[in-house]
Amino acid sequence: MTSAHILNPGAPPTDPRRRARRAAPEAAADRALPAAAEACTVGYSGSYPQGHQSLAAHHPGSAGLPRGAHVPGAHAWDGPIAPRLYTGQAVSAGAPGRPGGRGVRLFTDSPDLAEAVDAVCIGAGAQLTVTRESGVAAASSDLVLVDADWRGDGVPPGCVVVALAGNGDAWDVATRFQATAVVVLPHAAAWLAELVSRSTQQTAESALGRVYGVVGATGGVGASTAACWLAGHFTARGTDTALVDGDPLGTGLDLVLGEESEDGLRWPELHQFSGAVAADQLWAAMPRVDALRYLSWDRHATHADTVPSATVISALRGAAAVQVVDLSRADLARQAPWCDAVVVLAPRTVRGVLAAEHAVLTCGAVPAVTVLAGLNVADVEPRVLAEATGVPCVATLAFDPRVPQHLDDGSVLRRGRISRHAKAVARIADALEGTS
């Protein structure tokens, strides 16, 4: 896939054999993103595909802030700062004339990292407070940065992980802390300065979107179909929604949507990015079906082991009010923590009930609900499934013999709008929203 797939996601079809497309309303595609999208980003550690740039690439200090470098919205600074003693007190003085602005809190016991971050904060005119001991909670108004080597607590979800070059554990730490970004210094110092400058001037907290996972207790139960219908339900309500393919071996959700020829960002193109990509950049590059954005794998699971999936999904919380992720059953233990809640689809068989019980246990502390799907082979009722799994059975998706044909011709979203399916999906959505 070329860079044109990213730079021009709304390009008209050029393949005469592609399936008929539904017209996408331009007003929906061009509507303004919430301010939260500008502040929630994802960082990468490799190089961009041709034609794609990071925020950091727009500034001369993308490899660190050199002498005299200036980031728009920040105060210029000149040269390195003297070593400081970090005691948990405020370090940099912050911007004069802006009392009461948001501060920056860094959780670290590394003087080298603290000095590097403080240099950025000075350049951005922001006040930095360094926390060296566990148990100190950050103020709700602070922009929270956390050292990739931090082993303490007190770190709220939505933080930004910072690391010095050469730290290979930053991505795992970002998943553990539910971070919205990974910043490697000094390479992404310019981008961090821009984020600090923007965030410390915000006067209101920005709400992050929710992530709902859908997984089949067994294969062939219709989890991908249910994920598409659930995403379509939220989109029809006017919610900015992203449908995310979490199964690299599923040959791509774009096939289910009938959009395999549509231009736009796919998972493999997020392999080895460098610098930082803002959530609104990801959102704009994702292809869409009408107003529904989606992020799909390709046919061959290209770069499946190196794409930072968890961090991308976390970053997209800044642009999408709801993400529906079609989870991989084989990788559920790793993927479930990405989500605020998980829907487990169970076939109406004894084996299905036992498999659903295992899937719910695999989700761990992540809230889960169950849904019965398909033919009632063993006379399984919602009460039986709820008792076996210990979580509510919130709906039943009736067997529909026409769904395979709709999956094959790319019209599965349309099939989900018929009354009996739409009502069941609405009950699932209500149950998920009730888990917040």
From TrEMBL:
It comes from the Bacteria. Transmembrane segments: none annotated. Residues 1-32, 51-76 are annotated as: Disordered. InterPro entries: P-loop_NTPase, Rv3660c. This is Septum site determining protein. The lineage of its organism: Bacteria, Bacillati, Actinomycetota, Actinomycetes, Micrococcales.
